[in-house]
Automatic annotation (TrEMBL), chains A, B:
Binding site for substrate: 114
Keywords from the UniProt entry: Isomerase, tRNA processing
Annotated function: Formation of pseudouridine at positions 38, 39 and 40 in the anticodon stem and loop of transfer RNAs.
Name assigned to this protein: tRNA pseudouridine synthase A
Record EC number: 5.4.99.12
Catalytic site: 56 (nucleophile)
Lineage: Bacteria, Bacillati, Bacillota, Bacilli, Lactobacillales
Gene3D superfamilies with a match to the protein in the record: Pseudouridine synthase I, catalytic domain, C-terminal subdomain (3.30.70.660), Pseudouridine synthase I, catalytic domain, N-terminal subdomain (3.30.70.580)
Record has Repeat as a keyword: no
Length: 266, 266
């Protein structure tokens, strides 16, 4: 009897060519799919692993979510141990749940939370080089903290979408944002929680906030960019390795934002 | 006119075959020596870089120290920028000082401080896999905290020295130790500050403390090991990648421990 499992997992994106399976590339989906098929003693490619969405090469996850159907039932705690025993050290399965067959890791998403870490100071910290974007120039945290609030709400984010994004509506809702001045660690962290983000959207929004912090843009420039809906006005994209998928939300996880509005997205 | 520079630098030891120069290997000393000779426009191998001591393959440094003689004077801040601009991203020069020609990074050491990081929990955290030793079994922190105090003082540490260590006295002084229960990060950290440590000494002491935390040894077993002076009784060595050289001390840095007792050591 087939059983559907929801898995929550962290990965260090440094040595992956992103989340999505690709031929001849080491990807998170590819590694997990291989492990699940091995555990089920199925020929490679029989069982599929479906993630909540892709992350780019170098992007990390603290809690990505996927589901798969397993041909025979195993208790969740055994599945957790079994998967971890087969995972490479750059993937950690943090939680396993048995879910109804109606659960879908991608179609059921009600929200996603991303974190972007900027490390400050004149020189790169060797221990953060894969886990933060290093920014050597002074940033005015107060300006960034003010500007990030302008992203909250339902907007057309066309100014913040990479040209490679799938066609379709650029309207998304950002539920909340947060700028954290982590002086002890010489970091500024930016958090974005919304119903979904398009290709490179978080990295482009972060780049605009960095430009505001450098006073290369006025503090209210996000309002203008949301109005003009033109990517040419926001050309920079921050590097992948500062970005973390922090959490994926499903119905019930956050009663305030419980709707599945955009069933298919990036 | 030759000028002597003292440099303080951090490195991520993951991709180095240790500190000490070796043919056909990427080492910290090798990389720095090459950079200093390039900056001085000297043929490779003309100028030498002298570290406070070696660290093993995989061991990290938050503040290692070295000195070198440069053929023409450059202000310290220019040297700092110049070196960092040529360093790979896994080495960061944190400080440069112009010092008298009598200063020697190795012979003048008055103390060293090491940190060992243990990450707890059933599975390896992908983001800590190169920067902590993962320990999946329960550890009694209170026992470790009590036992680590027994290392303080002047002792013969023969029970805690790897067989590959240089011959000579095994007597060293540990000025202070500290066990930190960092529950927020699921880590136990052990700190050792002394006048010098022999080959693998910190990693062997940490292994004994871990065995005490697991109740495989009595809490007062360090007293016995210091008395028997026999490495056969403490066979385990913790892995290199949990170890950080935290600070190197020179005369004046710590008025309480200001003596150069062992002019040549590991």
């Amino acid at each position: 009897m087939t059983q559907r499992y929801k898995i929550t997992f962290a990965y260090d994106g440094t040595q992956f060519a992103g989340f999505q399976r690709q031929p001849h590339q080491r990807t998170v989906e590819g590694v997990l799919t291989k492990i699940v098929n091995q555990m089920a003693k199925q020929p490679e490619g029989t069982l599929g692993v479906y993630g909540s969405g892709r992350t780019d090469s170098g992007v990390h996850a603290l809690a990505q979510v996927a589901h798969f159907d397993f041909p025979f039932p195993i208790p969740a705690d055994k599945m957790l141990k079994g998967l971890n025993s087969m995972c490479p050290l750059d993937i950690q399965i943090k939680d396993v749940e048995i879910v109804p067959d109606t659960f879908h890791a991608r179609y059921d998403v009600t929200g996603k939370r991303y974190l972007y870490r900027l490390s400050l100071g004149p020189f790169t910290d060797p221990f953060k080089r894969f886990y933060t974007a290093h920014w050597r120039f002074p940033l005015d945290f107060g300006l960034m903290e003010t500007a990030i609030q302008d992203l909250v709400g339902t907007h057309n984010f066309a100014s913040f979408v990479a040209s490679g994004a799938k066609p379709g509506s650029r309207v998304r809702t950002i539920f909340s944002t947060k700028a954290i001045n982590d002086e002890a660690n010489h970091e500024i962290q930016l958090e974005f929680y919304g119903d979904g983000f398009m290709y490179n959207q978080v990295r482009i929004m972060t780049a605009v906030l960095v430009e505001i912090g450098m006073k290369k843009r006025p503090v209210d420039d996000i309002q203008r960019l949301l109005a003009v809906q033109d990517r040419q006005q926001a050309r920079l994209t921050m590097p992948a390795h500062g970005l973390f998928l922090e959490r994926v939300y499903y119905p019930g996880d956050d009663p305030e934002h419980n709707e599945k509005k955009h069933p298919v997205r990036d």
